[in-house]
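User: Please run a holo structure prediction.
Assistant: Happy to. Please share the sequence and the ligand.
User: Here you go; the ligand is NDP.
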Amino acid sequence: GYLSFFLLIAALTAYMWRDTFDPESVRGARVLITGASSGIGEQMAYHYSKFGAQIVITARREESLKKVVQKCLKLGAKAAMYVTGDMSDPADPEKVFKYTMEKLGGLDFLVLNHIGNTNVELWNGDWDHVRTLMQVNFVSYLQMTAAALPVLETSSGSIIVVSSMVAKLPSPYVAPYTSTKFALNGFYGSLQTELALKKSNVSVSILILGLIDTESAMNKIRGFTTMTAYPASEAALSIIKAGATRQKEAYYPWFHYFTCLINNIFPFMKDIILSGLSLD
Ligand code: NDP
């Protein structure tokens, strides 16, 4: 009895996660990637380039963006451009989007990935930091989305939102960051249903990532956790695939789907699941 139930679940899961990605679906696609001067965003820019997409990347550091664009062109991007923007400035999402429209003349994928700087520490009462982080990690996403939705409707395009396991499993030391990711999951989860009700052509994919070995993440979590970090390039590819195949929610690494499932069934196990995080 139990065995056949387990096999049924395994078969359903394998079916659900079968790789249906067709690289042709992103060849020539017009893509805007935020937070692409480093980390996962940079790796996504390289993958899209290998698939022959046309990309605009954005972040604050111009020199880094320039280097990423050069590499994208070498890797085979049909077009690659950058525009600087600071997402803590409420005027910049619109500016970045306008530039993208001027250069690409339309959009197929809006990839929202940037995050503002935050410390890994016990919350020290600094609520004002949460407010500014909300602008960068959340409100700017909505500003880009508001601008892009009419354009994506005409292209049957997609919004890809890079979120985190902390949006499923609230984690210590990163309360401000966690709150911004919860906000993203809440908003884009609602939007998915609203778009379905409107019979919209636009898809929204929410990506739940575990710990990824980007330089910034590794520098921050040192001394806080012994959890394994997974490669940024693989994480980036899984995000692109989930977006291109219009998955509503996807996990990287895949087994975090089960981490969340177990946490939902047995909420009291949260402290055990998070026991890799220590104060010393
Ligand atoms: P990085 O720190 O490597 O990259 C962040 C990017 O955001 C950089 O390009 C940075 O560029 C840009 N950025 C920072 N502040 C601003 C700002 N004010 N305005 C515009 N751009 C800004 O992060 P990761 O690659 O590690 O993370 C990427 C995504 O993956 C994030 O959404 C993160 O939450 C998610 N994620 C990451 C995990 C990990 O372990 N690494 C785990 C789970 C989720 P610049 O400084 O030039 O502006």
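The domain at 22-273 is CATH 3.40.50.720 (Rossmann fold).
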